[in-house]
Amino acid sequence: MTKRNLNISRRILLGRGLSAALLSASGVASARTVSGNKMVVIILRGAMDGLGAVPVIGREAGAEPLARFRPDLIAPGAAPLSEGFALHPSLKNVARLVRKGQGRVMHAAAGPYRERSHFLAQDLLESGTDKFMSRDGWLNRALQYGPSALQAVAVGSSTPHIVKGPASVASWSPPVLPEASDDTVARLLELYGSDPLLETALSQSIQLSGTAMMGGGSKAARGDFSAITEAAARLLLPAGGPDIAVLSLSGWDTHASQPNLLGRQLTKLDEALLTLEKTLGAHWQNTLVTVVTEFGRTVRQNGTKGTDHGTGSAAFALGGAVQGRGLIGDWPGVSERQLFENRDLYPANDIRSLFMAALSQQFGYSRADLSNSVFPQSAGLPIMRL
């Protein structure tokens, strides 16, 4: 063990927590050549109501039947988007980004799954295939077939399936144990000093944790989503750090009292996105954020002023790297005859198209690698310009 490693580690860890864990010691590289572009994938777990987040208000989008289907769920004060659509009033920052040309919406989006199990839908969303229980996630495959220096980090209390696989991926979770003392860290580094691989892994883990914790880890440990996105942004900032971050926000299963619950959730998301933008600073201009969920909810409200598991939902593409305006993809409408199985928003757009567009635009992935290796069974899906 070198004196230099010990000093750096003690300085980084001071006042922090030894909370980072690495799926692979090589998950964070020190000298790499990549484009400088960044990507953030946010998964909203629990099936966000896309028609609640992005309601239709104009005749061209079929507003009249929507109001008839869900008279108690239309939030007043929605911000007009375009083409007869609007944004929930809680999405103030998202609305600002849309006005700046830094935000687009893919409506009526879903993966290839057509049933309504959270677990199975999330499995396919993260695997990027139409086969259940795959051994790796699409982002891990993307690391295998993309630029050799490309790196990713998973931020949160658990490691999502999207990053699992043979490619090395870093992970960071907020601390839940008491902070490690300087003496403990020094002893660990001394213990691992005889094994270069273990020493490197521990040193990188400490550095990862110290970088993420600069914004304070206590709020992140309590599940504060803004604190988690701040940690993700700080991990993306350093030269040689990860290029892609993945994180999740749970709590979108709005079976009852949806107006209050959805408003609170969208406020959390909106504030977290603003924190991400502010923390990234100038890097926001070359960042693309995709916000997705496993499926949507029923067009009709239920008896408890909520919605049940559905199919088509809404997804977002946000950030300075967004180059287009307006909605992405096709819109199927919400009249009685246009519903999927007489209950759901028809899934007119495959969510994999959004992921393919993001990888192509940010990191130069070819159509062949995307459709053959990263997203098998996706041949024929459009790769849109975001």
Average pLDDT, to the nearest integer?
Answer: 84
* Shape designation: globular
Characterize the largest beta sheet: strand count, sense, and whether it forms a barrel. Answer: 10 strands, mixed
CATH class (first level) name of the largest domain: Alpha Beta
Mind telling me the C-alpha Rg? 21 Å
Helix content: 25-40%
Distance between the termini: 47 Å
Residue fraction in strands:
5-15%
CATH architecture of the largest domain: 3-Layer(aba) Sandwich
**Annotated CATH topology of the largest domain:** Alkaline Phosphatase, subunit A
Q: What string, H for helix and E for strand, traces the elements in order? A: HEEHHEEHEHHEEHHHHEHEEEEHH
Count of DSSP helices? 13
Count of distinct structural domains? 2
Strand runs, count: 12
Indicate the structural class: alpha/beta
Give the uncertain stretches in residue-range form.
1-33
